[in-house]
């Protein structure tokens, strides 16, 4: 009875740990993927200045105003990314530190290897900047 209880607890802890490690690895891949994209360009990919100008028959004055609006928006995305990047990094570091606290020495070594592996440059090629 006691043995099966210990096994159940061990399996539960293993599943929990695997979930945490998977989450960290997925987060690392996602961060590299999104970091390689220019957020503002991806947001504005459907807003093509020339196409809008042509389809809406914008005057030169309106086209200039639209260009300024898009640039301000792009800048806000750049600032937002800069604001959140350190917060995301801090959460990741805190999570890793908490995980290390529950691991034995052998598990810590394996976990550190997983972190190093996930920190290497991705095989996913960076996205080319969106051309206008």
Task: Please explain how this structure is put together.
By secondary structure, this protein is mainly α. It has one domain (2-119). The chain is built from 5 helices and no strands. The protein has helices at 2-35, 39-43, 49-55, 60-102, 105-119. Helix 1 runs parallel beside helix 5 (105-119).
Secondary structure topology:
Layout lengths: L1 H34 L3 H5 L5 H7 L4 H43 L2 H15 L13
Helix pairs in contact: 1-5
Kindly list the characteristics that best describe this protein.
single chain; 132 residues; mainly alpha; elongated
Which sheet architecture does the biggest sheet show? none
Low-confidence stretches: 124-132
Strand content: under 5%
Percentage of helical residues? over 70%
Number of strands: 0
Computed Rg:
23 Å
End-to-end Cα distance:
69 Å
Number of domains: 1
What structural class do helix, strand and pairing data support?
mainly alpha
Overall outline: elongated
Strand and helix order: HHHHH
Number of helices: 5
**Overall residue-averaged pLDDT value:** 78
